[in-house]
């Protein structure tokens, strides 16, 4: 049994496994038996199987009561073939009447999502993968597919029956041909003949993670991919494998368990894992990547990241529409015209491509774990078309409409975003004030030290005004949403605009300032793109070596982070994705940054588009999903001030403590410095204090 076989069996059971656990099982005397025991006993809440999940004592007791030859029979036919080194001819079960219970090995992501370019995660080549590549002249790992069509089992949805060249929009066979684009401007979709990856090929192409040495020899790198939209239509968020049953309620991807429907998503972990900071001004860190990052840049981590995003966001939408799997749209009953062609149905998918027809209509390509489908939004429906013009790549939406007679296209009548429910309740019962700031930029020559010192005097209750002193006495929390210092090497020629040229000295100076804040105020600091943490988001908290400079009353969290401040739910995000939203969503601007945060809230996601300006690490959980709905979302990054309310959620983009830089002058960005929003935690009223 090879390491790649261990990984493949684990993936079939919809888990991931750490390289250490793979090596541990592989090196055991009975790897097949130990693997089976682990899969039978692993806790349902586990997503990534680690060494700590392998109970050797339990396995020994289990082995004493059953021989290895007997135990192996509990595996499925496919699993036994993998364990014995045999190949699996297809991704369906050998029992034609059985319904697939889970995805098998997904096909590799397309080059638009996982490519060999320098801006994606790379790992040292695996010798076994190289030999497979060499056997197919002119091919790449990602291009390997079956040479023959997949034959579906009776009563089972056909995983290969996805959109191909014959089912794409074609002016020659589609009603209203003049209004429909031809194949040249239609999103590419999965090929019927080559959409299914055989097990042998998948072991070479899909299991990047089977090379443990590659993980250790090539640390992952993350950076922006502004060219992601190129060939985006060929992307596959979820990989490929067994299709889903036709029932909309059946989903074969894993979701993390939660204690109740109202506390899913961010609250899905065990409350024992939360970090509690008790005291007069308590803080509970509910969701934070710090100490929980598992990403090493393996293929399956990308797949799981998108599956987790789709699973959790589609669950929100599914409560509002009765959606069916995309694969069910490709059954013959939907291609016969009559009632089948005009019936209004709903699907939920992730947007993999956006294009326009020659007549100005919009085409959205949606993908779910069962397949992909094209949706047409006609420009004659003004309201719907306006909403479609704001749809972004990679966001999860629901669509209601009818299928054309040839079964190749949905004509949309309604678009549904996850959005915030109208009846979201605001929590009450807390008291005191929370001060929200960001983008201090200590070390910059444009750092407004005089205004900052006036702000510190206010917090210490040393203002000249009696009203200001009373207000300061009610402050319980100070929340900083990133960019404590200006950093080093963040942009070209930055050193010309620095007063402090050493990043550690910048943090020492910042720590001196924060030590002046009264101890009764609980300070919370989250990093930004100028801070000394990884650029890929979600970002962990500042390293302990830097935290040591600061006083003990400071709570360091990652970016983003979901907190409870004495019962008030606060979501902190530095806000780098605002750049993406300003560039892609009509009507969003730097002058009104809260409008960008509102667009995040409608999508229930802080960074909807993967691979643009925001470099995103594919963790096992999508930390950018806004679920549950917070009371306050606090962002920064763009150096302008904005406050807005949306369905009982307070959106605050705090300004900056840095004057206009040369770069900002060139792009005509006028910052709003030394303005401080103060939020009343009892009624969420906001006051803006000026210290300039």
Unreliable residue runs = 67-235, 241-272, 335-341
Total DSSP helices: 19
Shape descriptor: globular
Task: Tell me the Rg in angstroms.
Answer: 27 Å
pLDDT averaged residue by residue = 75
Tell me the structural class. Answer: alpha/beta
Strand order of the largest sheet: 3-4-14-15-16-18-17
Task: Note the quaternary state here.
Answer: single chain
Distance between the terminal alpha carbons, to the nearest Å?
69 Å
Strand tally is 20
Beta fraction: 15-25%
Fraction of residues in H or I helices: 10-25%
Major beta sheet, specifics? 7 strands, mixed
Supply database-style keywords:
about 15% strand; 19 helices; six-stranded mixed beta sheet; seven-stranded mixed beta sheet; alpha/beta
Account of the protein in words:
The chain is α/β, with parallel strands linked by helices and 692 residues long. It contains 19 helices and 20 strands. The strands form 4 sheets. Strands 3-4-14-15-16-18-17 form a 7-stranded mixed sheet, covered by helices on one side. Helix 3 crosses helix 4 and helix 7 crosses helix 8. It is globular, with a radius of gyration of 27 Å. About 30% of the residues have low confidence.
């Amino acid at each position: 049994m090879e390491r790649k076989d261990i990984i493949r069996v684990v993936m079939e059971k919809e888990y991931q496994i750490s390289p250490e656990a793979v090596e541990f099982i592989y090196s055991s005397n009975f790897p097949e038996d130990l693997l089976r025991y682990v899969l039978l006993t692993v806790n349902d809440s586990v997503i990534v199987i680690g060494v700590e999940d392998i109970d050797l004592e339990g396995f020994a007791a289990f082995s004493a009561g059953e021989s290895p030859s007997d135990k192996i029979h509990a595996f499925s036919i496919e699993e036994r073939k993998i364990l014995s080194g045999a190949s699996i001819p297809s991704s369906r079960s050998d029992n034609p009447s059985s319904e697939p219970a889970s995805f098998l090995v997904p096909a590799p992501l397309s080059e638009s999502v996982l490519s060999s370019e320098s801006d994606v995660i790379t790992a040292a080549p695996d010798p076994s993968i190289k030999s497979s590549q060499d056997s197919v002249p002119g091919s790449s790992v990602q291009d390997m597919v079956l040479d023959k069509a997949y034959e579906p089992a009776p009563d089972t949805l056909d995983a290969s029956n996805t959109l191909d060249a014959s089912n794409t929009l074609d002016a020659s066979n589609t009603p209203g041909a003049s209004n429909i684009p031809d194949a040249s401007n239609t999103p590419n979709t999965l090929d019927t003949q080559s959409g299914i990856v055989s097990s042998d090929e998948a072991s070479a192409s899909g299991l990047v993670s089977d090379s443990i040495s590659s993980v250790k020899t090539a640390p992952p790198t993350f950076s922006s991919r502004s060219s992601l939209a190129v060939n985006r239509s060929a992307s596959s968020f979820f990989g490929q494998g067994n299709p889903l049953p036709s029932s909309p309620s059946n989903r074969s991807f894993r979701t993390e368990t939660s204690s109740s429907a109202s506390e899913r998503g961010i609250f899905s972990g065990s409350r024992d894992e939360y970090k509690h900071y008790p005291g007069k001004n308590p803080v509970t860190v509910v969701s934070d990547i710090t100490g929980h990052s598992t990403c090493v840049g393996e293929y399956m981590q990308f797949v799981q990241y998108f599956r987790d995003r789709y699973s959790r966001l589609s669950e929100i939408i599914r409560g509002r529409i009765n959606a069916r799997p995309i694969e069910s749209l490709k059954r013959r009953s939907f291609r016969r015209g009559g009632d089948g062609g005009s019936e209004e149905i709903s699907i939920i998918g992730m947007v993999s491509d956006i294009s326009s027809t020659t007549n100005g209509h919009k085409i959205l390509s949606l993908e779910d774990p069962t397949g992909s489908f094209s949706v047409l939004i006609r420009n004659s429906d003004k309201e719907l078309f306006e909403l479609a013009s704001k749809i972004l790549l990679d966001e999860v939406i629901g669509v209601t409409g009818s299928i054309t007679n040839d079964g190749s296209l949905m004509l949309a009548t309604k678009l549904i975003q996850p959005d915030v429910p109208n009846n979201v309740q605001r929590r009450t019962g807390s008291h005191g004030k929370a001060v929200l700031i960001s983008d201090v930029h200590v070390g910059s020559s444009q750092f407004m030290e005089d205004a900052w010192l006036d702000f510190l005097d206010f917090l210490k209750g040393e203002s000249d005004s009696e009203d200001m002193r009373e207000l300061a006495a009610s402050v319980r929390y100070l929340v900083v949403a990133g960019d404590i210092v200006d950093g080093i090497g963040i942009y070209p020629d930055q050193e010309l605009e620095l007063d402090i040229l050493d990043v550690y000295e910048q943090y020492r100076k910042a720590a001196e300032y924060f030590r002046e804040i009264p101890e009764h105020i609980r300070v919370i600091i989250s990093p930004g793109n100028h801070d000394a943490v990884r650029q890929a988001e979600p970002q962990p908290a500042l390293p302990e070596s830097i935290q040591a400079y600061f006083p003990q009353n400071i709570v360091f969290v990652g970016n983003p982070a979901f907190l409870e401040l004495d019962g008030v739910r606060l979501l902190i995000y530095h806000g780098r994705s605002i750049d993406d939203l300003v560039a892609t969503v009509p009507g969003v601007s730097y002058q009104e940054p809260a409008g960008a945060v509102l667009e995040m809230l409608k999508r229930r996601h802080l960074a909807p588009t993967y691979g643009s300006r925001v470099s995103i690490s594919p963790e096992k959980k999508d930390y950018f999903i806004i679920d549950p709905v917070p009371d306050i979302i606090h962002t920064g990054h763009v150096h302008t001030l904005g406050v807005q309310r949306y369905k009982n959620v307070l959106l605050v983009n705090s300004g900056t403590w840095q004057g206009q830089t040369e770069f900002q002058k060139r792009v005509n960005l006028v910052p709003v410095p030394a303005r401080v929003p103060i939020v009343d935690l009892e009624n969420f009223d906001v006051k803006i204090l000026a210290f300039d």
